[in-house]
Specification:
Elements lengths: L3 E6 L6 H12 L3 E3 H10 L4 H12 L5 H12 L7 E5 L5 H13 L6 E6 L2 H9 L1 E4 L5 E3 L18 E2 L6 H24 L3 E5 L4 H14 L6
Helix pairs in contact: 2-3, 4-5
Bound molecules: adenosine-5'-diphosphate (ADP) (2 copies) and zinc ion (ZN).
Zinc ion (ZN) binds next to loops.
Amino acid sequence: MNHLNLIILGPPGAGKGTQADLIARKYKIPHISTGDMFREVLKDEGSELARDLREYVEKGELVPDEIVLKMVKMRLEHDDAQSGFILDGFPRTLEQAKHLDDSLIQIGKNINLVIYLEASFNIILERLAGRRVCLHCSANYHIKYSSPKEEGVCDRCGGELYQREDDKEATIRRRVEIYLEQIEGIIGFYNQKECLLKISGDLDAGDVFKLVESQLVKSNIIGN
Ligand code: ADP
Ligand code: ADP
Ligand code: ZN
């Protein structure tokens, strides 16, 4: 198997976390979500970094590149990311995409595939309003589409499920607006590298995953 260095892009609620988790478990690569990393930091309320980050993350504004880039670079240096990774929620600006590319080139690596999940706005709203996340392990649920066996409790670890502060309608609109401002530049960048796969995130999660896997086979990234 080649290295599986993947990126998943898409608006909030498109299903990036859900797909990244499926891919990470099947191919045994780490699921690196910058949003999850930030929410981890926020749990330690007294820390200086948490104080700095809270205003951005809870309002749905972008965290400054300087902070994001440092955290991602450190995460990609871990042993578990040496034979592959899936980045979810990063890059979110053209600047971040260029930086990532430069730092991968420096260590002789590259991105094999960028999965671009599109989603319509009414679907985004319904998904985010019903999203519930495990406080302990960050597993994702939906009250209608993938509900846990016991309401409010994580199937995987028994942790408590909560609704994200930024999954409220006004903040969702702001997040989608920011996403739309940034996405074209990022898409243009990866289109030039001919590694972009566009999939409708409106589809059922299982169908999206099948399309991702067939592309991985087609591009010889994984064997049959
Ligand atoms: P993102 O990481 O892009 O914000 P998530 O993977 O967290 O998106 O999905 C948002 C919500 O929608 C979650 O509650 C998730 O369980 C649910 N979801 C994800 N993919 C689908 C899908 N294809 N169909 C229906 N619900 C989905
Ligand atoms: P979603 O799953 O809804 O797409 P994320 O969990 O990826 O949202 O991100 C939540 C918040 O974390 C963002 O609204 C932003 O404040 C911050 N964030 C996450 N990734 C980045 C990034 N690459 N650059 C800047 N801010 C980020
Ligand atoms: Zn859990």
